[in-house]
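Hi U.,

Before I forget, here's the chain from the pilot set. I'm dumping it here mostly so it's searchable later in email.
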Amino acid sequence: MKRFLIAGNWKMNKTTAQAVHYVHELKAQKLTNPESVAIIAPFTQLEALKKELEGTGISLGAQNVHYEHSGAFTGEISVDMLKEIGVDYCVVGHSERREYFNETDETVNRKLKVLLEEGITPILCVGESLEVREKKQEQAFVCGQLGEAFAGIPQEYAEKVVIAYEPIWAIGTGHTATPEQAEEMCAFIRGMMQGLYDMSIGDKLIIQYGGSMKPGNAKELLEKTDINGGLIGGASLKVKDFAEIAKTAAELAE
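Structure:
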């Protein structure tokens, strides 16, 4: 049976009260496979959401983490703080973190290592800009990101990482990669990981598509062989839209 992970990345949206209300509404949607669903929320909401999600099967994720366990890093959050709350996932290397907050392939690698060591599943974001794609260098670019991200990480840890392909040109722009473009890159990522490690890792990886997935295009994307879910941005802010995508994945997993 094909595995899916539908993760809603709320980015910098919702107050804690709004987040709790959202979960109440999401529970009412009666998801058939909640274990394949995660909410990726701002730090201030995590503790309240952990309590609200208890017993639902829905997972909880953070949007970032520092690679040090403690220290003079004002405004940052450590893996130990996330563990204390009981976070299941943590996004690493999102294109917005790379662009606006100077996230590098080196810091991505260090964050992956600390999360894996502490038992939190990373959602690693990779993807190219429009400029890179127009030069037909998207595979070489993503290849470089993956090689740097997984440097020094053994296969038993690497196969636990969720990889989200997010074409930067399709995030928040209303544009979406065609299902064929998305599948081509996700298949390339799977093959690249098999090259970095061995063929057995291919069957264990969850590879998401993360570029403006919404109810109208979810089925066409999710039914592709190498797409195991979505890192959902804008559509995850509306309960019914997010639930519809999750239900689509559940139907395809049957």
